[in-house]
Amino acid sequence: MAMKTALVLGATGGVGGAVTRAMLARGWRVVALVRNPARAAAAWGASIAPDRQAGDAMNRADVVRAAHGTDVIVHAVNPPGYRGWDRLVLPMLDNTLAAARDAGARIVLPGTVYNYDPALAPVIDETIPQHPRGRKGAIRVEMERRLAEAAPEVRSLIVRAGDFFGPGARQSWFAQALSKPPLARIVNPGTPGVGHAWAYLPDLAEAILRLLELPPERLMPCERLQFPGHYDADGAQMVAAIRRASGRPNLPERRFPWAMMRGLALFGGFPREVMEVRPFWAHAMRLDGSRLTELLGDVPCTSLDAAVSAALRS
Questions:
Q1: Among 64, 75, 70, which Cα is nearest to 51's?
Q2: Which pLDDT tens digit goes with each residue over 44-79?
Q3: Is the distance from CB of 194 to CB of 284 less than 8 angstroms?
């Protein structure tokens, strides 16, 4: 089989980095479009690394040039510091669409649950209507609409997952609240008794890679799939796993200060962004992976204890 080539936008981030590592381990050639090649090289260190091209996802010419000769474009890029979503997210996707048309490549988009209202959609599958509650969710819905509209000329694969954890997931609730180093306490944003969906990044990346290695005709022109990951049915399983993995059964647990954030949200900034995702911690939402299982058979799923141990080590 000929070597496949992928362009990854966001290769230094959580999902983009995990997919890049999985592709490289499987013999793919990976091109990473990065704003600062030297900093990206330092981030990858001595490990096997992608080919790095200097460029910006906001510059269409940069993306089209980097995508030349590729089979897949992984669109895992976000605005720097997660600022400027209203201005930057859709133009970046339009650049990726233009590059995919030019190269004849399939687009891979890591999907989110923010497309849905968790109070109305406790279980998500491919048929559930998307009714976002917040600004970011509305933008994600528009991203998926543009991908669907571009098919079949541009093929796409959307794999939706819950909250990320694992190596490379630095901008995550797991890394910045539940297990923030030094691990002196667990700050739990969840609601007691309310379920929550988690996605271990190496498992998610493996599932994406196995989908891309299927015969192309097995996937719909715009395929939308749900990655079930680990569903914490009562909101207590992740806390218990962190305590087991850290060897500290009495590690204190504190509730996330939602009430304080609600007051500060009036002034914008981080508290306002946090309050936009509050409903996803107040209502249970599970991802139905039936279609994914139909395609792959066994969906990658590292045991929760092993996954949490690896996440804490990283």
A1: 70
A2: 765 678 999 999 999 999 999 999 999 999 999 988
A3: yes
How many helices (DSSP H) and strands (DSSP E) are in the chain? 13, 14
| Count of CB atoms situated within 10 Å of the CB of 263 | 11
Closest by Cα among 166, 200, 189, 195 to 278: 189
Residue 13 three-state SS: coil
Q: Could you tell me how far CA 153 lies from the centroid of its own chain? A: 25
* Residue whose entry in the numeric block shows the structure tokens 């079949």: 152
H/E run at residue 43:
helix 37-44
Closest among 273, 255, 239, 231 to 84, alpha carbons compared: 273
> HSE on the CB side for 304, CA within 13 Å?
16
Nearest to 203 by CA among 15, 29, 76, 47: 15
164 by Cβ neighbours in 10 Å (0-12 / 13-18 / 19+) ranks as: buried
pLDDT tens, position by position, 12-49: 899 999 999 999 999 999 999 998 877 777 777 656 78
Q: Does residue 216 have a cis peptide bond before it, meaning omega lies within 30 degrees of 0?
A: no
